[in-house]
């Protein structure tokens, strides 16, 4: 028998945990940088389903065995690398917008990395362990992720149409680097 409590608790817990989280800023930055809100939305959906599904399935196993500091260090350096990569000359935003698979894969990988060791992943691990309802916890935590991040995608799209693209490009590069530095700082404090 399925417990709808697992679905509702997972949805609410993850939606609340995501408010103001780095993945909301990541969604905003990606849509400003690349456009393609639906592509980014589906990348977030795929990353959340994979990440939260594995987290719920494995439950306490990952919570007890993964070194979260190492994960944060890898994630921090990955964000810095993406920020520096975005500074490369010769890649116009228009070119990036025409690469649907490139935008999808970029968003998917970044969201997957951003969720490693994040509070929503840990919450999903704990909810999976508590309820034992892998499917409902996965669906609920994914819905919570989408409820928190979808508004950032469409708000970002509106900003992208009104603000200068070149300035946004450099601002997004700087923000990726800052997110990486803050992630490293959190890992080493």
Structural overview:
The longest helix has 29 residues, at 134-162. This protein has one domain. Helix 1 (4-18) packs antiparallel against helix 8 (119-131) and helix 1 runs parallel beside helix 9. With 189 residues, it is mainly α. It is globular, with a radius of gyration of 17 Å. Helices cover 86% and strands 0% of the residues. The protein contains ten helices and no strands.
Write out key terms for the chains shown:
189 residues, mainly alpha, 10 helices, 86% helix, GDT1 family protein, GDT1-like
β-strand number: 0
Give the overall average pLDDT: 75
Structural class from helices and strands?
mainly alpha
* Tally of helical segments: 10
Beta fraction of the residues?
under 5%
Q: Rounded to an integer, what's the Rg over CA atoms?
A: 17 Å
Order of helices and strands: HHHHHHHHHH
Question: What would a concise description of this structure say?
Answer:
The chain is mainly α.
How would you summarize the topology of this molecule?
Layout: H1 4-18, H2 22-34, H3 37-58, H4 60-65, H5 68-86, H6 93-97, H7 100-115, H8 119-131, H9 134-162, H10 165-188
Helix pairs in contact: 1-8, 1-9, 2-3, 2-7, 2-9, 2-10, 3-7, 3-8, 3-9, 5-10, 8-9
């Amino acid at each position: 028998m399925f417990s709808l409590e697992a679905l509702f608790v997972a949805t609410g817990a993850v939606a609340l945990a995501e408010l103001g989280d780095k993945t909301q800023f990541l969604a905003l930055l990606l849509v400003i940088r690349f456009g393609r809100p639906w592509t980014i939305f589906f990348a977030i959906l795929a990353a959340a389903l994979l990440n939260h599904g594995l987290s719920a399935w494995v439950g306490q196993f990952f919570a007890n065995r993964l070194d979260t500091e190492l994960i944060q260090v890898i994630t921090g350096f990955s964000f810095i690398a993406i920020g520096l990569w975005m500074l490369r000359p010769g890649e116009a935003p228009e070119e990036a917008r025409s690469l649907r698979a490139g935008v999808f894969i970029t968003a998917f990988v970044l969201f997957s990395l951003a969720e490693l060791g994040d509070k929503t992943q840990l919450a999903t691990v704990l909810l999976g362990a508590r309820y034992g309802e892998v499917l409902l916890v996965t669906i609920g935590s994914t819905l919570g992720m989408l409820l928190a991040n979808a508004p950032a995608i469409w708000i970002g799209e509106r900003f992208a149409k009104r603000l200068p693209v070149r300035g946004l490009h450099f601002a997004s590069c700087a923000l990726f680097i800052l997110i990486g530095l803050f992630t490293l700082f959190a890992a080493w404090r």
